[in-house]
Amino acid sequence: MDELRPQDPARIGVWRILARLGAGGMGQVYLGRSPGGRLVAVKVIRDEISDHPESLARFRREAATMEAVRSPYAAQLIEASLDASPYWLATEYVPGPTLRDAVRASGPFPPESALRLFAALAEGLATVHVHGVTHRDLKPQNVILAPQGPQLIDFGIARGLDLTALTRTGMALGTPGYAAPEVLLRNEVGPAADVFALGATIAHAATGRPPYGEGDPSSVNYRSVHEDIDVAGVREDLAALIRRCVAKDPAERPELAAVIAGCAVDSALASDAHYRSVARDTEAVPGPEPVSVSEPKPESKSESKSAESAEPPARWGYDETGKAGTRYAVPNRSPAPAARRGHGRRWLAACAVVLVVPLALWLHPRLGDDDQDPGAAPATGTITSGATAKDEATAKDDTTAKDDATPKDDAPEQPPDHIVNDRVSQDRWTLSDDPDQASHGGGTCDLASIGDSSPPDGLRSSVLHTTGSGTASVSMRPKDAGSGKRPEPYYVSVGIRPPHETDRTTGRPLKSVGKGIGFTTEPVDLYSEWSSGGTVKFQYPDDFQAHFGERTVDAIPVSDDPGDWTVVIYHVEGGPTKYTSVVCNGFHAGG
């Protein structure tokens, strides 16, 4: 849950907007409150998407599906405005983390807890299927762990069994690793496809790993069609039930009733100790400004009169008829510190991934001959952005007290909370001029010079963006991860720079070309995942913010700024202003 931005509406229909819950490819999701105090999740379709008939049809179908499906396992539709822009729908607000975020924060589910979750989700899907609807995008991101039990969300690509899919020839809707083989190969959708996704979802819950590994979508989809699911280390009875659900032939998958029976649960999921521990909603709903009990300082009569007459700030919103342009006053609020974005952040809504033109670029800087990958993109160079003398002096002062007790090396004992966007970056990725390379997302990074800092030998990194989506992901894995002694810490932060500069007040793209380092992640140790496979992964925009001195700006969706996006891995060598670029890559978005 994030604070509202200046450009966010204060009201949509009758709902007063309190906070941001999340964003997806279709639009923004807000926390809203009715005049009587009921909380809802309000999903607003983005203006640029509302101009596309197919996307608008999918949004309307989501509303129709949610209205038709009445299940204790699905958030209920409260109200919708689908006749004229702005298009939005309001559903009941379900507090709790997504399954993906719960696993990230607390690790895999114990076997008995996973079986109880298995049974509950199977029962939830069964109540959806009764209405003649298949969810079609079940995955950990689309399961909210509410206190009373799991809730299915995001019916954006759900469909009735007698409806034609809203796809073009050659397109498959779904998420790599969770889409069934018949969906990927023939766009053949039925209840059995949901059973496959259920098995893959529980595999992730039980292992904490992607069910068919990581990589570009085409590679993951290939493994989903031709290879076995990853259930290594899972208790055999649970692993066997998962394997039955993900059988390649849909006819061999069990019915949901058989799945429930196979789980053989003897107690409620809500009473499960592990489930209770991860399902707790720790984020407070924004409320009235608390009244200070401290003694107020004396003020003059003129100050008192000025305070009484001051008008609260206003924000643009939508009136009860759905028309934009009405200006509403909102209560004065003291600004709160921006919430840190990390792997434990919760999203209460997500959008389906549309696999149109997937882009995956693998970098292998400074690899030996035995490490060459024939399909890899050429390695790029590096560039150094040095710190100022003042920065170095400050960093020296900060570490003086620890010098006597701590061995001196180039890496800090602990990384800073963030790095500051304090310089002009010379790293710039551009889409290739060669039509053949451009069609596959190929491009080059223009580096002004080669710096002294270099990535560790054998570092493998990848950037993935699915055409048309608002997201991207960056993964990196050091060579020989998991074998031998874990190396000394090497702190890295990933920077993603949009094509255009970011307005530091509104967070929106400007017309000027982007010159800074853009939105960055919290620095982490490259070897932090050494014992569990070694892959360090960041999701954009979830894990990214831009820091301008005291001001912090949330990352914008990729789809908000079409053009060439630059992705840089920075070696964080000291404080928030001492970092060096070591790997450069990028991708092209829309437009």
Description:
- With 591 residues, this protein is α+β, with helices and mostly antiparallel strands.
- Among the domains are: 181 residues, Transferase(Phosphotransferase), domain 1, CATH 1.10.510; 226 residues, no CATH class.
- Helices cover 22% and strands 24% of the residues.
- It is built from 13 helices and 29 strands.
- The strands form ten sheets. It has a six-stranded antiparallel β-sheet with strand order 1-2-3-4-6-5. Strands 20, 23, 24, 28 and 29 form a five-stranded antiparallel β-sheet that branches. It has a four-stranded antiparallel β-sheet with strand order 15-18-19-25, with no helix packed on it.
- β3 and β4 form a beta hairpin.
- About 24% of the residues have low confidence.
Highlighted features:
591 residues, alpha+beta, Transferase(Phosphotransferase), domain 1, six-stranded antiparallel sheet, five-stranded antiparallel sheet, globular
The chain-level structural class is: alpha+beta
Strand order of the largest sheet: 1-2-3-4-6-5
Strand content: 15-25%
Work out the helicity level. Answer: 10-25%
Gyration radius (Cα, Å) is 25 Å
The geometry reads as: globular
Measured between the Cα atoms of the first and last residue, the distance is 30 Å
Weakly predicted, low-confidence segments: 156-172, 289-412
Largest sheet: 6 strands, antiparallel
If helices are DSSP runs of H or I spanning 4 or more residues, what is the number of helices?
A: 13
List the helices and strands and how they pair.
Elements lengths: L10 E2 L2 E9 L3 E7 L5 E7 L1 H4 L2 H16 L8 E5 L6 E5 L6 H8 L4 H19 L3 E2 L8 E4 L2 E4 L6 E2 L11 E2 L7 H6 L4 H17 L9 H10 L9 H10 L10 H8 L9 H7 L21 H9 L4 E5 L5 E6 L24 E2 L2 E6 L25 H12 L27 E4 L3 H5 L3 E4 L13 E7 L5 E6 L13 E7 L2 E3 L6 E5 L5 E2 L3 E2 L10 E5 L4 E4 L2 E4 L8 E10 L6 E11 L2
Antiparallel strand pairs: 1-2, 2-3, 3-4, 4-6, 5-6, 7-10, 8-9, 11-14, 12-13, 15-18, 16-17, 18-19, 19-25, 20-23, 20-24, 20-28, 21-22, 26-27, 28-29
